[in-house]
């Protein structure tokens, strides 16, 4: 159980015009699983490598339990990184791969063999110790990589896009396995991903990095309910951004006045709400009359594009809910105040 | 016409040349080594040439010297080449120039290198004269015998000078393909720099290193010109011994020359097999 503190962590690569990572600060509680989320090239793997000691930061500090680890070599930090493409040593058996970290620590071979067997059972690969990595599927290889990291009981586990090379059903399986093992072993874990769904499902907290800069660090639901800015809201699938003015209690915009939640910001800005939170029918406050401009079946959902007050609103819902709705219909929707959020312009 | 026939027909010219020159030459050499040379009246094949060389002490001394030259040159070249590749794969100012200089002597022929070694390291060479000039030794002749010496130091120096960049270029390309992520994994799992080199990088480059060193070993074991130019008269390296017998005024010595040549081929093949097996076992551990 290790508390991890990243303080203004910055990395500027030689010759680069702008930093790959700009003043990242995170406090990660002992035993938490935190996702660093962002698009490719935003600096999240750079952050991970700096925590692992594989890259030196240009500025800032990294503390484990209040102690700076910047001067510690990678093999002395107690953090273990699992890479995106598994990187199992191809010339070693699965057992030798899993036991590698223990061997480097000089653990007795008999003890290594016992611990490797136990670890392989934990990652649901019993009896596969004698195989070579090339004889395993992608999902099995990823589980071996995870076992190889967990067997050394790291202070901090660093997972770099561990699910990105797996197909859909293996991702679900692996996701559950990571969460289960992480909670069983109470290892502070930092998990890098570009997939917001993965971040939200797996992580206790999510740090969103855009353009090398952290935009929001919060519990997962807050990115949907209270995004820090328009970019964060858009990254998390926000579709409705209505310009207007707020007095803190209500919003004046193109379709008139709507009631806001109590903690809404006052001033000029954008009203945002998620498509799935728009309610079909006239019940409750903030009712709006709309014209159905588009209806699209998306498989598990149906999307409507609605026109009201000269602006467009997008709503989504269960397809059955929209059975009677056709393009050109006039319908009433309502916007529950607690699902609305004001963003600065 | 089937694809297989087409391929065979297309390869036929090249295969004919190889067949005639290589296997033809080998067959003639083999026949002569069995004392079969009708032009000089030897028409009864026998093992006399082999018996003669196996009962000659000089053959064993020559074999030991040749093995020493090939093995020592290969090992030293491999160690230095891996070290150079480790340095050259890093990013540093002037790397392109250093890399160019490192590979420069790949273009220099072995013979030119041998003459360079003579000029620099012989007892009448530049270093001997400089040492005398700086009064490190009384006269150039006191300079240690590094050329024509019984330990073949001059020969080994020449081979190392020439083969380090050859192996280095192969290993460097190998390392660049592998990247540094495997070592990062090892470091992250608790391996020290040396452990990550020993247990991760070395096994990963082992196939390339084995291939390169096998080529160097085979070449240095069978090469004639450098031991002839820089080696001592006695014992001489096996190829020099074979050449001397072959060019002997007595044509009856030719079966012995051919027997030595055949043995060089067989011994180098056997040693290469053993070397590959050992290096794979050692590095893969």
Unreliable parts of chain A: none
Multimerization status: heterodimer
Structural class of chain A: alpha+beta
* Share of β-strand residues of chain B: under 5%
Averaged pLDDT of chain B: 89
Order of helices and strands of chain B: HHHHHHHHHHHH
Number of strand elements of chain A: 20
Q: In one word, what is the shape of chain B?
A: globular
CATH level-1 class of the largest domain in chain B = Mainly Alpha
Main sheet attributes: strand count, strand direction, barrel closure of chain A: 6 strands, mixed
Low-pLDDT segments, ≥5 res of chain B: none
In total, the number of domains of chain B comes to 2
* CATH architecture tag of the largest domain in chain A: 3-Layer(aba) Sandwich
Helix content of chain B: over 70%
Beta-strand residue percentage of chain A: 25-35%
CATH superfamily of the largest domain in chain A: P-loop containing nucleotide triphosphate hydrolases
Most extensive chain interface and residues per partner: A-B, 25 and 18 residues
Can you tell me the CATH superfamily of the largest domain in chain B? MetI-like
Distance between the termini of chain B: 50 Å
What CATH calls the topology of the largest domain in chain B is MetI-like fold
What does this protein structure show overall?
The complex is a heterodimer of chains A (345) and B (285). Chain A is an alpha+beta fold and 345 residues long. Chain A has 2 domains: 4-225, 3-Layer(aba) Sandwich (Rossmann fold), CATH 3.40.50; 241-344, Nucleic acid-binding proteins (OB fold (Dihydrolipoamide Acetyltransferase, E2P)), CATH 2.40.50.140. Helices cover 25% and strands 34% of the residues of chain A. In chain A, the strands form 4 sheets. Chain A has a 6-stranded mixed sheet, sandwiched between helices. In chain A, strands 13-12-11-14-20 form a 5-stranded antiparallel sheet, with no helix packed on it. In chain A, strands 15-19-16-17-18 form a 5-stranded antiparallel sheet, with no helix packed on it. Chain A is elongated and about 75 Å long. The model of chain A has no long low-confidence stretch (mean pLDDT 91). Chain B is mostly helical. Chain B has 2 domains: 1-33, no CATH class; 47-284, Orthogonal Bundle (MetI-like fold), CATH 1.10.3720. Chain B is globular. Chain B starts with a helix and ends with a helix. The model of chain B has no long low-confidence stretch (mean pLDDT 89). The chains are: A alpha+beta (345), B mainly alpha (285). The interface between A and B is medium-sized, with 25 and 18 residues.
């Amino acid at each position: 159980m290790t508390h991890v503190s990243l303080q203004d962590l910055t990395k500027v690569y030689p010759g680069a015009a702008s930093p790959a990572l700009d003043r990242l600060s995170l406090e990660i509680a002992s035993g938490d699983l935190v996702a660093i989320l962002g698009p490719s090239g935003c600096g999240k793997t750079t952050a991970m490598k700096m925590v692992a000691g594989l890259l030196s930061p240009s500025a800032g500090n990294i503390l484990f339990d209040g102690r700076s680890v910047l001067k510690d070599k990678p093999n002395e930090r107690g953090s273990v990184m699992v890479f995106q493409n598994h990187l199992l040593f191809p010339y070693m058996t699965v057992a030798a791969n899993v036991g590698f970290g223990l061997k480097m620590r000089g653990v007795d071979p008999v003890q290594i063999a016992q611990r490797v067997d136990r670890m392989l059972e934990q990652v649901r690969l019993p009896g596969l110790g004698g195989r070579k990595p090339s004889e395993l599927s992608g999902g099995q290889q990823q589980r071996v990589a995870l076992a190889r990291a967990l067997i050394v009981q790291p202070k901090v586990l660093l997972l770099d896009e561990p699910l990105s090379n797996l197909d859909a059903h293996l991702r679900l399986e692996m996701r559950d396995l990571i969460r289960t093992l992480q909670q069983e072993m109470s290892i502070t874990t930092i998990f890098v991903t570009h997939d917001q769904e993965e971040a939200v499902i797996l992580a206790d907290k999510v740090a969103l990095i855009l353009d090398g800069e952290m935009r929001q660090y919060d519990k997962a639901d807050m990115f949907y309910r209270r995004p820090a800015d328009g970019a964060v809201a858009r990254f998390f699938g926000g579709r409705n951004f209505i310009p207007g003015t707020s007095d803190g209690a209500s919003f004046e915009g193109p379709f008139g006045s709507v009631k806001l939640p109590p903690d809404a910001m006052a001033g000029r800005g954008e009203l945002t709400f998620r498509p799935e939170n728009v309610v079909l029918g006239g019940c409750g406050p903030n009712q709006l009359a709309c014209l159905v401009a588009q209806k699209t079946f998306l498989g598990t959902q149906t999307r409507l594009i609605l026109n009201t007050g000269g602006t467009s609103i997008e709503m989504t819902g269960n397809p059955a809910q929209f059975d009677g709705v056709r393009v050109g219909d006039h319908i009433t929707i309502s916007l529950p105040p607690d699902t609305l959020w004001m963003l600065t312009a | 016409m089937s694809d297989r026939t087409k391929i065979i027909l297309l390869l036929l010219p090249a295969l004919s040349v190889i067949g005639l020159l290589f296997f033809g030459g080998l067959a003639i050499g083999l026949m002569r080594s069995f004392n079969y040379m009708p032009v000089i009246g030897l028409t009864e094949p026998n093992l006399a040439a082999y018996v003669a060389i196996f009962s000659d002490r000089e053959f064993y001394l020559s074999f030991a010297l040749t093995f020493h030259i090939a093995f020592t040159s290969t090992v030293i070249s491999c160690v230095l080449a891996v070290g150079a590749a480790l340095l050259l794969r890093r990013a540093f100012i002037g790397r392109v120039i250093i890399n160019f200089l490192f590979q420069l002597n790949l273009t220099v022929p072995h013979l030119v290198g041998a003459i360079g070694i003579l000029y620099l390291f012989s007892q009448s060479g530049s270093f001997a004269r400089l040492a005398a000039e700086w009064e490190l030794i009384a006269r150039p002749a006191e300079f240690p015998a590094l050329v024509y010496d019984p330990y073949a130091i001059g020969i080994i120096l020449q081979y190392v000078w020439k083969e380090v960049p050859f192996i280095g270029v192969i290993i460097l390309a190998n390392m660049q393909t592998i990247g540094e992520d495997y070592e990062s994994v090892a470091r992250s799992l608790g391996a020290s720099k040396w452990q990550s080199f020993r247990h991760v990088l070395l096994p990963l480059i082992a196939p390339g290193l084995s291939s390169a060193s096998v080529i160097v070993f085979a070449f240095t074991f069978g090469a004639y010109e450098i031991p002839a130019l820089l080696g001592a008269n006695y014992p001489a390296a096996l190829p020099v011994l074979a050449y001397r017998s072959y060019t002997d005024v007595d044509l009856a010595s030719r079966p012995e020359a051919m027997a030595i040549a055949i043995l060089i081929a067989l011994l180098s093949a056997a040693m290469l097999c053993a070397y590959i097996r050992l290096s794979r076992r050692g590095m893969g551990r």
